[in-house]
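Sequence in, structure out.
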Amino acid sequence: MDYSELKKISDFTHDPAVTISLRTHRTSPKNQKDAIVLKNLINETEERLLELYDKRKVWGVMDNLRALETELNHQQYLDTLILFASEDFKEAIKLPIEIEKDTVKIDKKFSTRNLIRAVKQTEHYYVLTLSQQEVRVLEFFNDTFVQEFETDDFPFKNTEFYETDPTQNSIGAVQNNLIKEFFNRADNAFYKIYRENPLPVILAGVQRNIEYYHEIANQDEWFIGSIHGSFDRTKITNHEIVELAYPVIEAYVSDQLDQSLADLETAENENKLVNELSNIYKAVTEGRGKKLYVEKDFFQSAVIEEGTLIVTEDTSQAEVVDDIVNEIIHTVTEFGGEVVFVPNDYLAKYHHIALILRY
Protein backbone atom coordinates (compact mmCIF):
# COMPACT_ATOMS: atom_id res chain seq x y z
CA MET A 1 0.00 0.00 0.00
CA ASP A 2 1.45 3.28 -1.10
CA TYR A 3 1.09 6.43 0.99
CA SER A 4 -0.67 8.19 -1.92
CA GLU A 5 -3.27 5.38 -2.06
CA LEU A 6 -3.82 5.72 1.67
CA LYS A 7 -4.27 9.45 1.19
CA LYS A 8 -6.99 8.83 -1.43
CA ILE A 9 -8.80 6.49 0.94
CA SER A 10 -8.56 9.08 3.73
CA ASP A 11 -10.29 11.63 1.47
CA PHE A 12 -13.22 9.30 0.71
CA THR A 13 -16.52 10.33 2.35
CA HIS A 14 -19.53 8.07 2.78
CA ASP A 15 -21.99 7.27 5.54
CA PRO A 16 -21.37 4.67 6.82
CA ALA A 17 -17.66 4.13 6.19
CA VAL A 18 -16.28 1.07 7.99
CA THR A 19 -12.63 0.51 8.87
CA ILE A 20 -11.63 -2.88 10.31
CA SER A 21 -8.04 -3.21 11.51
CA LEU A 22 -6.53 -6.42 12.82
CA ARG A 23 -3.15 -7.81 13.71
CA THR A 24 -2.14 -10.67 11.43
CA HIS A 25 0.62 -13.25 11.20
CA ARG A 26 2.98 -14.20 8.41
CA THR A 27 3.37 -17.88 9.19
CA SER A 28 1.32 -20.96 9.99
CA PRO A 29 -0.27 -22.00 12.29
CA LYS A 30 -0.81 -18.50 13.71
CA ASN A 31 -2.19 -17.08 10.46
CA GLN A 32 -4.90 -19.77 10.43
CA LYS A 33 -6.48 -18.06 13.45
CA ASP A 34 -6.54 -14.71 11.64
CA ALA A 35 -9.51 -15.84 9.54
CA ILE A 36 -11.51 -16.53 12.71
CA VAL A 37 -10.62 -13.16 14.22
CA LEU A 38 -11.62 -11.41 11.00
CA LYS A 39 -14.96 -13.22 10.84
CA ASN A 40 -15.71 -12.18 14.42
CA LEU A 41 -14.86 -8.55 13.66
CA ILE A 42 -17.11 -8.58 10.59
CA ASN A 43 -19.97 -10.03 12.67
CA GLU A 44 -19.39 -7.32 15.27
CA THR A 45 -19.50 -4.72 12.50
CA GLU A 46 -22.85 -6.00 11.25
CA GLU A 47 -24.38 -5.86 14.73
CA ARG A 48 -23.19 -2.30 15.28
CA LEU A 49 -24.32 -1.14 11.84
CA LEU A 50 -27.82 -2.54 12.36
CA GLU A 51 -28.06 -0.57 15.60
CA LEU A 52 -27.13 2.66 13.82
CA TYR A 53 -28.52 2.45 10.27
CA ASP A 54 -31.43 1.23 8.22
CA LYS A 55 -30.86 -2.38 7.18
CA ARG A 56 -30.91 -1.46 3.48
CA LYS A 57 -27.85 0.74 4.03
CA VAL A 58 -26.18 -2.03 5.99
CA TRP A 59 -26.65 -4.68 3.29
CA GLY A 60 -24.41 -2.93 0.77
CA VAL A 61 -21.60 -2.43 3.27
CA MET A 62 -21.79 -6.02 4.49
CA ASP A 63 -21.81 -7.39 0.94
CA ASN A 64 -18.53 -5.59 0.33
CA LEU A 65 -17.01 -6.78 3.60
CA ARG A 66 -18.00 -10.39 2.88
CA ALA A 67 -16.55 -10.09 -0.62
CA LEU A 68 -13.23 -8.86 0.79
CA GLU A 69 -13.22 -11.70 3.31
CA THR A 70 -13.70 -14.24 0.52
CA GLU A 71 -10.97 -12.72 -1.66
CA LEU A 72 -8.29 -12.71 1.03
CA ASN A 73 -5.49 -15.27 1.09
CA HIS A 74 -4.59 -15.83 4.73
CA GLN A 75 -1.29 -17.42 3.72
CA GLN A 76 -0.04 -14.09 2.35
CA TYR A 77 -0.54 -11.82 5.34
CA LEU A 78 1.98 -9.33 6.68
CA ASP A 79 1.66 -7.75 10.15
CA THR A 80 -1.57 -5.80 9.77
CA LEU A 81 -4.72 -6.18 7.68
CA ILE A 82 -7.13 -3.29 7.14
CA LEU A 83 -10.50 -3.49 5.43
CA PHE A 84 -12.23 -0.36 4.16
CA ALA A 85 -15.87 -0.73 3.12
CA SER A 86 -18.90 1.38 2.34
CA GLU A 87 -21.95 0.77 0.15
CA ASP A 88 -19.99 1.48 -3.04
CA PHE A 89 -16.34 1.02 -2.07
CA LYS A 90 -14.17 -1.81 -0.80
CA GLU A 91 -10.43 -2.18 -0.33
CA ALA A 92 -8.18 -4.49 1.68
CA ILE A 93 -4.58 -3.61 2.41
CA LYS A 94 -1.79 -5.56 4.08
CA LEU A 95 0.97 -3.66 5.82
CA PRO A 96 4.30 -4.63 7.42
CA ILE A 97 3.62 -2.38 10.40
CA GLU A 98 2.23 -3.37 13.79
CA ILE A 99 -0.87 -1.94 15.46
CA GLU A 100 -1.73 -2.09 19.16
CA LYS A 101 -5.13 -3.79 18.93
CA ASP A 102 -7.88 -5.02 16.61
CA THR A 103 -10.57 -2.39 16.02
CA VAL A 104 -13.81 -1.68 14.18
CA LYS A 105 -14.53 1.97 13.42
CA ILE A 106 -17.75 3.27 11.88
CA ASP A 107 -17.86 6.87 10.75
CA LYS A 108 -18.47 9.08 7.71
CA LYS A 109 -14.82 8.75 6.70
CA PHE A 110 -12.35 5.88 6.83
CA SER A 111 -9.91 5.83 9.72
CA THR A 112 -6.38 6.39 8.39
CA ARG A 113 -4.73 8.98 10.63
CA ASN A 114 -2.41 6.74 12.61
CA LEU A 115 -1.65 4.73 9.49
CA ILE A 116 -0.37 7.76 7.60
CA ARG A 117 2.23 8.37 10.31
CA ALA A 118 3.17 4.68 10.41
CA VAL A 119 3.46 4.26 6.63
CA LYS A 120 5.53 7.42 6.22
CA GLN A 121 8.05 6.09 8.74
CA THR A 122 8.84 3.01 6.67
CA GLU A 123 11.28 2.85 3.77
CA HIS A 124 9.37 1.45 0.83
CA TYR A 125 11.26 0.45 -2.31
CA TYR A 126 11.67 -1.90 -5.27
CA VAL A 127 14.51 -4.22 -6.20
CA LEU A 128 14.84 -5.15 -9.88
CA THR A 129 16.79 -8.37 -10.33
CA LEU A 130 18.48 -8.45 -13.74
CA SER A 131 19.62 -11.45 -15.70
CA GLN A 132 19.72 -12.17 -19.41
CA GLN A 133 16.90 -14.70 -18.92
CA GLU A 134 14.43 -12.70 -16.80
CA VAL A 135 13.81 -9.49 -14.89
CA ARG A 136 11.92 -9.62 -11.60
CA VAL A 137 10.34 -6.83 -9.53
CA LEU A 138 10.47 -7.28 -5.75
CA GLU A 139 8.86 -4.94 -3.24
CA PHE A 140 10.18 -4.30 0.29
CA PHE A 141 9.31 -2.30 3.39
CA ASN A 142 12.46 -1.58 5.41
CA ASP A 143 14.13 -4.98 5.81
CA THR A 144 10.92 -6.91 5.11
CA PHE A 145 9.94 -8.60 1.85
CA VAL A 146 6.41 -7.66 0.76
CA GLN A 147 5.82 -9.28 -2.62
CA GLU A 148 7.15 -10.25 -6.01
CA PHE A 149 5.07 -8.75 -8.80
CA GLU A 150 3.36 -11.43 -10.82
CA THR A 151 1.54 -9.70 -13.67
CA ASP A 152 0.98 -10.18 -17.37
CA ASP A 153 4.48 -8.75 -17.84
CA PHE A 154 6.44 -9.91 -14.80
CA PRO A 155 8.54 -11.85 -14.25
CA PHE A 156 9.69 -10.51 -17.62
CA LYS A 157 11.05 -13.47 -19.57
CA ASN A 158 13.52 -13.31 -22.44
CA THR A 159 11.73 -15.33 -25.11
CA GLU A 160 13.09 -13.63 -28.24
CA PHE A 161 16.19 -11.51 -27.62
CA TYR A 162 18.90 -14.08 -28.10
CA GLU A 163 20.82 -15.34 -31.11
CA THR A 164 20.48 -18.98 -32.19
CA ASP A 165 23.14 -18.70 -34.89
CA PRO A 166 26.46 -19.63 -33.20
CA THR A 167 28.43 -17.43 -35.59
CA GLN A 168 26.30 -14.39 -34.74
CA ASN A 169 26.22 -15.24 -31.06
CA SER A 170 30.00 -15.08 -30.95
CA ILE A 171 29.92 -11.45 -32.11
CA GLY A 172 29.93 -9.36 -28.95
CA ALA A 173 28.12 -6.35 -30.41
CA VAL A 174 25.21 -8.50 -31.61
CA GLN A 175 24.80 -10.18 -28.24
CA ASN A 176 25.09 -6.89 -26.35
CA ASN A 177 22.43 -5.23 -28.49
CA LEU A 178 20.05 -8.12 -27.89
CA ILE A 179 20.54 -7.88 -24.13
CA LYS A 180 19.95 -4.13 -24.22
CA GLU A 181 16.76 -4.55 -26.23
CA PHE A 182 15.52 -7.17 -23.75
CA PHE A 183 16.18 -4.78 -20.86
CA ASN A 184 14.53 -1.95 -22.80
CA ARG A 185 11.33 -3.96 -23.16
CA ALA A 186 11.47 -4.91 -19.48
CA ASP A 187 11.98 -1.27 -18.49
CA ASN A 188 8.94 -0.20 -20.51
CA ALA A 189 6.90 -2.86 -18.70
CA PHE A 190 8.27 -1.79 -15.31
CA TYR A 191 7.16 1.78 -16.01
CA LYS A 192 3.54 0.62 -15.64
CA ILE A 193 4.28 -0.54 -12.08
CA TYR A 194 6.35 2.51 -11.21
CA ARG A 195 3.72 4.92 -12.54
CA GLU A 196 1.12 3.45 -10.19
CA ASN A 197 3.40 3.62 -7.16
CA PRO A 198 6.66 5.56 -7.64
CA LEU A 199 9.27 4.31 -5.17
CA PRO A 200 13.08 4.26 -5.03
CA VAL A 201 14.56 1.45 -7.12
CA ILE A 202 17.65 -0.69 -6.51
CA LEU A 203 19.14 -2.66 -9.40
CA ALA A 204 20.46 -6.13 -8.62
CA GLY A 205 22.69 -8.11 -10.98
CA VAL A 206 26.17 -8.51 -12.39
CA GLN A 207 27.99 -5.30 -13.24
CA ARG A 208 27.55 -5.63 -17.01
CA ASN A 209 23.78 -6.07 -16.79
CA ILE A 210 23.46 -3.10 -14.45
CA GLU A 211 25.48 -0.92 -16.83
CA TYR A 212 23.32 -1.99 -19.79
CA TYR A 213 20.14 -1.25 -17.86
CA HIS A 214 21.35 2.24 -16.98
CA GLU A 215 22.01 2.85 -20.67
CA ILE A 216 18.48 2.01 -21.79
CA ALA A 217 16.45 3.18 -18.77
CA ASN A 218 13.60 5.61 -19.45
CA GLN A 219 14.25 7.46 -16.20
CA ASP A 220 17.69 6.76 -14.79
CA GLU A 221 16.99 9.01 -11.78
CA TRP A 222 14.62 6.37 -10.39
CA PHE A 223 17.60 4.23 -9.39
CA ILE A 224 19.21 5.03 -6.06
CA GLY A 225 21.87 2.31 -6.05
CA SER A 226 22.75 -1.24 -6.95
CA ILE A 227 23.79 -4.58 -5.48
CA HIS A 228 26.02 -6.96 -7.37
CA GLY A 229 26.02 -10.68 -7.99
CA SER A 230 23.77 -13.40 -9.34
CA PHE A 231 20.15 -13.10 -8.23
CA ASP A 232 18.76 -16.22 -9.85
CA ARG A 233 15.65 -17.20 -7.87
CA THR A 234 17.02 -20.72 -7.44
CA LYS A 235 20.25 -19.50 -5.83
CA ILE A 236 19.24 -16.67 -3.51
CA THR A 237 16.30 -16.04 -1.18
CA ASN A 238 14.36 -12.82 -0.79
CA HIS A 239 15.71 -12.57 2.75
CA GLU A 240 19.27 -12.69 1.41
CA ILE A 241 18.41 -10.03 -1.16
CA VAL A 242 17.07 -7.62 1.46
CA GLU A 243 20.21 -8.10 3.56
CA LEU A 244 22.14 -6.68 0.61
CA ALA A 245 19.58 -4.06 -0.40
CA TYR A 246 18.71 -2.51 2.95
CA PRO A 247 22.15 -0.89 3.50
CA VAL A 248 21.68 0.83 0.12
CA ILE A 249 18.36 2.24 1.32
CA GLU A 250 19.93 3.36 4.61
CA ALA A 251 22.66 5.23 2.71
CA TYR A 252 20.01 6.81 0.48
CA VAL A 253 18.00 7.92 3.52
CA SER A 254 21.14 9.41 5.07
CA ASP A 255 21.76 11.44 1.92
CA GLN A 256 18.14 12.58 1.94
CA LEU A 257 18.50 13.72 5.55
CA ASP A 258 21.54 15.81 4.67
CA GLN A 259 19.50 17.41 1.90
CA SER A 260 16.64 18.01 4.35
CA LEU A 261 18.86 20.10 6.61
CA ALA A 262 20.05 22.10 3.63
CA ASP A 263 16.44 22.69 2.53
CA LEU A 264 15.47 23.83 6.02
CA GLU A 265 18.35 26.30 6.16
CA THR A 266 17.42 27.67 2.74
CA ALA A 267 13.78 28.10 3.79
CA GLU A 268 14.88 29.79 7.00
CA ASN A 269 17.00 32.27 5.05
CA GLU A 270 14.02 32.98 2.79
CA ASN A 271 11.67 33.48 5.77
CA LYS A 272 9.60 30.47 4.70
CA LEU A 273 10.24 28.33 7.78
CA VAL A 274 7.97 27.91 10.80
CA ASN A 275 9.06 25.87 13.82
CA GLU A 276 6.74 26.84 16.66
CA LEU A 277 3.86 24.38 17.09
CA SER A 278 0.99 26.87 17.29
CA ASN A 279 2.26 28.75 14.23
CA ILE A 280 2.72 25.47 12.35
CA TYR A 281 -0.86 24.49 13.19
CA LYS A 282 -2.19 27.83 11.95
CA ALA A 283 -0.19 27.62 8.72
CA VAL A 284 -1.24 24.07 7.84
CA THR A 285 -4.93 24.74 8.52
CA GLU A 286 -4.64 27.64 6.07
CA GLY A 287 -3.19 25.29 3.46
CA ARG A 288 0.22 26.98 3.47
CA GLY A 289 2.26 23.92 4.44
CA LYS A 290 4.55 22.72 1.65
CA LYS A 291 6.79 20.25 3.49
CA LEU A 292 6.60 19.17 7.13
CA TYR A 293 9.62 17.70 8.90
CA VAL A 294 8.97 15.88 12.17
CA GLU A 295 11.01 13.63 14.43
CA LYS A 296 9.63 10.10 14.38
CA ASP A 297 8.80 9.90 18.11
CA PHE A 298 7.64 13.47 18.60
CA PHE A 299 4.14 13.58 20.10
CA GLN A 300 2.40 16.49 21.80
CA SER A 301 -1.01 16.96 23.40
CA ALA A 302 -2.82 20.26 22.94
CA VAL A 303 -6.12 22.11 23.14
CA ILE A 304 -7.64 24.09 20.27
CA GLU A 305 -9.44 27.21 21.48
CA GLU A 306 -11.09 29.42 18.86
CA GLY A 307 -8.69 28.15 16.21
CA THR A 308 -5.59 28.68 18.34
CA LEU A 309 -3.40 25.79 19.49
CA ILE A 310 -2.41 25.71 23.15
CA VAL A 311 0.12 23.07 24.24
CA THR A 312 -0.80 21.15 27.39
CA GLU A 313 0.50 18.14 29.28
CA ASP A 314 -2.82 17.57 31.06
CA THR A 315 -4.58 14.93 28.94
CA SER A 316 -7.43 14.38 31.40
CA GLN A 317 -9.62 17.09 29.86
CA ALA A 318 -12.17 15.92 27.30
CA GLU A 319 -11.25 18.64 24.80
CA VAL A 320 -7.55 17.73 24.73
CA VAL A 321 -6.17 16.31 21.48
CA ASP A 322 -3.84 13.52 22.56
CA ASP A 323 -1.45 13.98 19.64
CA ILE A 324 -1.74 17.28 17.82
CA VAL A 325 1.31 16.34 15.73
CA ASN A 326 -0.73 13.58 14.11
CA GLU A 327 -3.49 16.10 13.34
CA ILE A 328 -0.93 18.43 11.76
CA ILE A 329 0.48 15.57 9.66
CA HIS A 330 -2.99 14.68 8.45
CA THR A 331 -3.85 18.29 7.61
CA VAL A 332 -0.63 18.79 5.64
CA THR A 333 -1.44 15.75 3.50
CA GLU A 334 -5.04 16.87 3.00
CA PHE A 335 -3.75 20.06 1.38
CA GLY A 336 -1.31 18.14 -0.82
CA GLY A 337 1.82 18.83 1.21
CA GLU A 338 4.66 16.42 1.97
CA VAL A 339 5.64 14.88 5.30
CA VAL A 340 9.20 13.77 6.09
CA PHE A 341 10.08 11.84 9.25
CA VAL A 342 13.60 12.18 10.60
CA PRO A 343 15.49 10.53 13.50
CA ASN A 344 14.92 11.75 17.04
CA ASP A 345 16.90 14.89 17.98
CA TYR A 346 17.63 15.57 14.32
CA LEU A 347 15.50 18.71 14.56
CA ALA A 348 16.57 19.77 18.06
CA LYS A 349 17.42 23.21 16.69
CA TYR A 350 13.82 23.51 15.47
CA HIS A 351 12.10 22.07 18.58
CA HIS A 352 11.51 18.66 16.94
CA ILE A 353 9.23 19.87 14.14
CA ALA A 354 9.53 22.36 11.28
CA LEU A 355 7.39 23.44 8.36
CA ILE A 356 8.47 24.88 5.02
CA LEU A 357 5.78 27.23 3.74
CA ARG A 358 4.45 27.50 0.20
CA TYR A 359 4.45 31.28 0.48
